[in-house]
Structure to design on (92 residues):
């Protein structure tokens, strides 16, 4: 998103928030030594650690029930769809 905004002339000095509902994934972003059970992943997937270290992305935990990005990744029941749309500011 930052790259797109920069292309159209907007820049931000603040890190982009990344809200993660998985505690293990969150711990991987913050702890470079936490990789014992992730040996199956290719090293190219560790780009996230680099951008976190550079303060370009700020990961934080969010409860799974509040994860708005679910609307873009899976089928949801209508109440969850309505919740996500409201939080995204999408009005139909």
């Amino acid at each position: 998103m930052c790259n797109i905004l920069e292309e159209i002339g907007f820049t931000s000095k603040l890190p982009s928030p990344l809200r993660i509902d998985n505690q293990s994934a969150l711990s991987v972003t913050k702890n470079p030594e936490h990789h014992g059970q992730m040996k199956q992943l290719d090293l190219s997937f560790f780009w996230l650690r680099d951008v976190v270290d550079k303060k370009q992305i700020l990961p934080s935990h969010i409860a799974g029930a509040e994860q708005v990005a679910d609307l873009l990744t899976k089928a949801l029941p209508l109440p969850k769809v309505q919740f996500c749309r409201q939080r995204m500011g999408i009005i139909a």
